[in-house]
Fold this sequence. Notes:
By secondary structure, this protein is of the alpha/beta class. The protein has helices spanning about 1-20, 25-30, 55-70, 95-105, 120-125, 170-185; strands spanning about 50, 75-80, 110-115, 135-140, 140-145, 195-200, 215-220, 230-235.
Amino acid sequence: MIDRFDDAVVLPTLGTQLGLDLNHVSESVARPGQYFSASQVDLDTYDQIIVCMSGGKDSIACLLHLLDLGVDRSRVELWHHEVDGREGSSLMDWPFMTSYNRQLAAAFELPIYFSWLDGGFEGEMLKENSYSRAHHIETPEGLLTLARDTVRALPATRRKFPQVSASLQTRWCSSALKIDVGRRALNNQTRFNNKKVLFITGERRQESANRARYNQLEPHFCDRRNGMKARHVDAWRPVLDWDEER
């Protein structure tokens, strides 16, 4: 057990601090279904394929790569997280992004579902001694509004602009406006129960030292393949090894 902890935690941490490449160590103790490199997956084994579509080059590259691989389009849907929400703020996002992504989906004859944190980036940044706000998630059955837990949670204050950091607590925009919204969208739709889902995002190793250490294929943190809901969710980053010039 001590050796396993050293291999999985201590050595990779030292490698990061010393600037050494110890990814081969983490590969050797990978969890089932976890692969540092997985440029190809068997798309036919998945019931549903979700592409997180920001509208940027990397997410579009993911979609085009899927189509090049001959994916069954009837299994594909696009998800776009609106970082400003729909409550009137226009602080962060380009005003055309919602329309742009809707037209992009229409061009490829794919469904697209939008989701957002109530109040968006601005509302979260200005949060002061208050509870986190609801998530709004479009689904095939209509709009799903998910309130937050005000029984176990406590009011909190943000009042800070997110900073460049590998920590999602410091760079909170990704966690609060994208990751958490996507997590609740997966966890609160029964259509994913007893299904095998592929969740695709467009990170690339070239973007940062932290992303250089990402696994290309692994169980998503919403995966419950062995649980009562039998929701099998794999996270795949198909363009992870692509460079900027490709």
